[in-house]
Specification:
The protein has about 325 residues and is α/β, with parallel strands linked by helices. It folds into 2 domains: about 1-85, Orthogonal Bundle (Arc Repressor Mutant, subunit A), CATH 1.10.10; about 180-325, Aspartate Aminotransferase, domain 2. Helices cover about 35% and strands about 10% of the residues. The protein has 12 helices and 8 strands. The chain has helices at about 15-30, 40-50, 50-65, 80-85, 105, 140-150, 155-160, 170-180, 200-210, 225-235, 275-290, 315, and strands at about 70, 75-80, 215-220, 240-245, 250, 260-265, 295, 320-325. The strands form 2 sheets. It has a 6-stranded mixed beta sheet, with helices on both faces. Strands 1-2 form a two-stranded antiparallel ribbon. Helix 1 (about 15-30) packs across helix 3, helix 2 packs across helix 3 and helix 9 (about 200-210) packs parallel to helix 10.
Amino acid sequence: MMQLFHLSQSKDSSLQKQLREQIALAIMKGSIPLDIPLPSSRKLAEQLNIGRNTVVLAYEHLLDDGYIVARERRGYFVNPDILGGQVSASLRPTEEEYKRPDWERRFKVQPTGQTNIVKVADWQSYEYPFIYGQFDEKIFPSVNWRECCRDAASDTALNDWASDNLDNDDPRLIEQIRTRLLPRRGVWASPEQILITVGSQQSLFMLVQLLLDQHSVLGLEEPGYVDVRNIASLHKCQIKSLAIDAEGLIVDDQLKGCDLIYTTPSHQCPTAVTMPIERRYELLNRANSEDFLIIEDDYESETNFNGKPSPALKSLDTSDRVIYIG
C-alpha cells in the first residue's frame, strides 16, 4: 500500500494535503481493500519519512470527509458508503457509439480569444512585479486576518451568515461600509443603495448587462482597464475609445454619443494620473447636459502622491448619474 503514495517537498501544497489527496484518490479508484486497515500513523510516517502528526491530521480530515471510518481497536478502514454512490464506468458510452459535438462551432462568443493581461506564475520572486490585485505578504496583517476568520467561524457568527438571506447582504457589513468606508471618500448612501459583489469585475459585468445593449455606446478610457473592454465586448455593445492626458479623461466633444462612460478618475488605469476637481465638475456637467451615466471605478484611491486625496466623483454628484465601484 505504501507504493500508492509519493510525497514531494518541492510541491506547492503541504505534505499533509498531498497525503490526504492521494489516499482519497486511491480509495475512489478502489486501490485500497475494504477489509484491510490503513497503516497506523506511526508506521505510515516511518515509511514515508514524514512527521507522525502529518499522517494523523490527514487521517482526521479523511474521517471528517467520510472517506474512512474508525473501528475500535482495529484502526481506520475505507468507508464502503463512499464508494456506493459511484456510477459504474461500464455505463459510459464508448467514443465509437457517439460523435462528439463540435464545441468551437457552438460557442457564440470566444472569451479566450480576448486580449488579457497575463501574470507570470512566479511574480512574487520579482523585485518589481508591476501587477495589481495581489497583496504583499510582508505587510499584510495576517495575524489580525486569522483572528477575524476565527471570529467569523464561531457558533454565533455561523448562525448569522449561514442562514438564507435571499437577496439581502449582511446588514452589519452594509453598515460598516455605509458609516466607515464610504464617508472617507465623501460618499453618503442609504443601505438600499449599497450592493456587495465578489469584486469589481462582477460589478462591471452586472452593470453592462443591465444598462447596455447592441444599440448602446460605452465610452472607455484609452489606454484603460482591459477587463472592462472584454466584458463589454461580450455584450455586443458599441465601444468608443476616449483619449486621456496628464489629468485623466479629456472632457470635450469626444464624449458625445455615449450612453455610459467608464472612468478611473482618482487613479487612472494604467497611467495612475489623477483627475483634478475642476475637470470632475466638467464631466458631471457634461453628463447632465448630454444625458449619459458614469461608472466611477475608485480603485486604489488611497494611493495618492500629490497631497490630499481628491474627493470621489460620486461625492460631487447631485443628479444621481454616477455609479460608484470601490
